[in-house]
Specification:
Layout: H1 2-23, H2 32-43
């Protein structure tokens, strides 16, 4: 029974997140440069030992 309640809560939370995302303003476009910068950020020497 607890598992069913937990799943229902998770589905409600997911639905809320999806609706909030759909109602939000568009962000900046995701380009190849965006992913290159992201890779550099997470693989750089400053990121060693840090949780992201």
């Amino acid at each position: 029974m607890r598992e069913l309640i937990r799943r229902d809560r998770d589905l409600v939370r997911l639905r809320e997140w999806l609706l909030a995302g759909a109602a939000s303003q568009p962000g900046e476009p995701v380009t190849a440069g965006y992913f290159e910068a992201l890779r550099a950020k997470v693989s750089g020497p400053a990121s060693l030992g840090k949780k992201v």
